[in-house]
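Continuing the series of single-chain predictions for the mutant panel. This is the parent chain; the variants come on the following pages.
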Amino acid sequence: MGLTRRQFMPLMAALAAIGAAAPSNGFAANDDPPALVFAAASMKNALDDIAARWRAETGNAVVISYGGSSTLARQIERGAPADLFVSANEGWMDHLEQGGHVEAASRRPIAANRLVVVSHGKDLPSVDLADPDDLAAKLDGGPLAMALTDAVPAGIYGREALTALGLWDGVAGQVVQADNVRAALHYVATGEAPYGIVYASDAAADDRVSVAATFPPASHKPIRYPAALIAGRDTAAARALLDFLDSSSARAIFRKHGFLPPAGDGSG
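Parent structure:
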C-alpha cells in the first residue's frame, strides 16, 4: 500500500529541504549528499541545534524530517530514502529492525526523557496525580491534549501512565488526540486545551506552558530514543553523523533541551 497524501507531505518537505540545504553543486562540503534523518517530533529543538553544530564542525549538511515515530517508521517501510531514524520509543525501532529495515548493529540509545502534564500559561493549578479525581476536576470538562494514544510514543506512554495511576477512565472522554507530541503541546500553548501530556523536553521548549505534574517512573515504560542507520544506507557520512549523535557534544545539547542521558531511566 502506498503513502497517503497526509503521510507523504513530511517526506516531500524533507526532499525539498535537501535541495535547499545543498550548495550549488548539489552536494555537501565533502561532496557527499546531505544526510537525511527521520526523527521524532519531540527532538526538534535539540536536533536542530545538533545539526547546526555538526555543520559547523564538519562542513557537512544534514536534513531532518520530523514527525510521529509511527508515521516515519511506516514511510521507511515503504522505501523513503532516509539515512538515519531516531524514534521516540523502542517499539517502532523494534518493528523496523524485525522487518530488516534498519542496520541492527548500528542501533543505540542516544537520549531519554520524562513524561509530564503541562498546563496553559503560568496561572493554572498543578495536578496531583496521586488523587484519582484531581486531573478530571482540573480539566473541568475541558480537553486533555495528547498525541495519538495507539500509535505515537508520547500518547502510548501517556495512556499507559494514566491507566497505571487509575486516571484513564475518568479523563478518556476528554482526550483530544494530535498527530504528534509537538501538535499536542501546541494545543496547550495556544490555550485550545488547558492541560496536556507531553515530554519534559517539550515543556522546556515553549514558555507558554508550565509543568503541572511529572509522572512517577513506575507508571510507564522507560522513554528512550534509539537511533539506527537505515538498511542499505550505511554510508561513511551517515555513520559519522550517528556517531556524532552519540557524542559528548550532542549529549550536552540534549541536556540543555531537557533530555536525560541515554543511560538514565527515562521514565520519570
